Amino acid sequence: MSTAAPSAQPASSQAASGKGLAAYCRGVTKHYGSGSNQVLALRGIDLEIPAGKLTMLVGPSGCGKTTLISVIAGILDRDAGECSVFGRDFSAMGQRERTRYRGENIGFVFQQFNLLPTLNAAENVAVPLMILGEGRAAAVAKGKEYLAQVGLGDRWKSLPSQLSGGQQQRVAIARALVHSPRLIVCDEPTSALDHETGGRVMALLKDVALKNDRALVIVTHDARIFSYADQIAKMDDGRVDQVITGSGITAEARGH
Ligand code: ADP
Ligand code: MG
Fold first, then answer.
1. Is 42 in the pocket of ligand 1 (CB under 6 A)?
2. Is the CB of 13 within 6 Å of ligand 1?
3. Which of these, 78, 169, 215, 229, could form a disulfide with 22 (CB 3.0-4.6 Å)?
4. Bridge-partner residues for 32, per DSSP?
5. What's the pLDDT score for residue 81?
6. What's the confidence (pLDDT) of residue 254?
């Protein structure tokens, strides 16, 4: 992995101790399919995700961004390499433990939102709390609060089909935050939002991430939000080939 001057990161002292890191990957590989249909989606990923910071993952379509965050969040199994989230390795857990650990520690915003069509907006946001055992009334009340934070307080009764793409995206973001996870992973969270709403959502995400040393990972193509990042990991063809921090981010946001 090469690092960008002038704000290069120390190669890996944090990973060695694990201190201050929400997650890290070392040499992670992942393929799909078999035989002549095999696609090597991750070709040896090295990445450190610090707590209390916003890491953006950028790169061309098909370079492996969604696969990588799915491996980090324990949704997909890796083939090889090391990966740990708050010091724990999903591949060492049984299915039930994995589901519980993910439910308690990770909030995930899927690219396609994955809202449940028969539940209203507040109920959708409440799902992670109910999975963790919170009573329905309290969970839905908290769901409404989080909807208000993403500017949808008056739409809590709406079904996903009655909301625009951008509104559904904000419901998905509220759902990822409602149970106060320590790691929040978002796949293109501003893609369906206009500039102003995107800025509001980013400010909220960043505010939440910085509280209590949580970590935020955002996959994005959206150069308008680069300036919110603490580090930008650039991916290409299944690898992270550059990590940009500090003044390098300003240059990246300006388009070099
Ligand atoms: P990105 O999110 O950067 O667009 P992905 O992680 O979705 O990239 O995909 C990386 C590569 O893996 C691409 O070549 C894609 O076509 C392939 N891929 C992704 N998901 C699957 C799947 N379920 N089955 C087969 N190939 C897949
Ligand atoms: Mg993707």
1. no
2. no
3. 215
4. 39
5. 98
6. 85
